[in-house]
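[recover] target loaded
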């Protein structure tokens, strides 16, 4: 199971190195049981990736956070942080395809809706393959964020809908 505690930056670097070492330590012919289920795809396994909120983003702060153009770039973690998590997640989910380029280390609660940027409980390796992919989810995230910022729905409604099932979030909220 993936860790869900917040990790200080210095410890995060050490953890990244540790994850890299662990992954390199799993050699050819070494089988490792998946701890997260692919049965939920295109959604993450909720026991591994429950979704975590950024406490700085609330309904009262959306005009200074998520509704500011470019805000997500100010909180998005670098790939030096997310790639080791992605590699570990690919192992945890037991994906046969282990090419990091075939996945987006995605935020279950998107940054656009105030998801926690660095909490591993909000990050998972979402496949680019299939009928409902990481690319499909990106459009849903943007539509929900626009509806929140336009006042058509509340932040809470958008977060609840996307956390429950991003593939139905637009219809559940009445956006699409």
């Amino acid at each position: 199971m993936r860790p869900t505690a917040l990790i200080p930056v210095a410890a995060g670097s050490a953890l990244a190195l540790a994850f890299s070492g662990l992954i390199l330590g799993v050699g050819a012919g070494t089988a490792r049981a998946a701890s997260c289920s692919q049965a939920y795809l295109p959604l993450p396994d909720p026991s591994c990736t429950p979704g975590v909120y950024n406490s700085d983003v609330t309904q009262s702060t959306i005009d200074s956070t998520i509704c500011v153009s470019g805000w997500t770039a100010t909180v998005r973690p670098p790939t030096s942080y997310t790639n080791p998590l992605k590699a570990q997640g690919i192992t945890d989910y037991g994906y046969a395809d282990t090419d990091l380029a075939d996945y987006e280390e995605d935020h279950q609660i998107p940054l656009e809706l105030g998801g926690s940027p660095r909490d591993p409980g909000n990050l998972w390796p979402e496949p680019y393959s299939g009928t409902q992919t990481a690319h499909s989810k990106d459009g849903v995230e943007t539509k929900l964020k626009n509806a929140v910022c336009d006042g058509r729905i509340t932040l809470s409604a958008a977060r609840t809908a996307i956390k429950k099932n991003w593939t139905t979030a637009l219809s559940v909220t009445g956006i699409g």
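[recover] notes: DSSP finds six helices and two strands in the chain.
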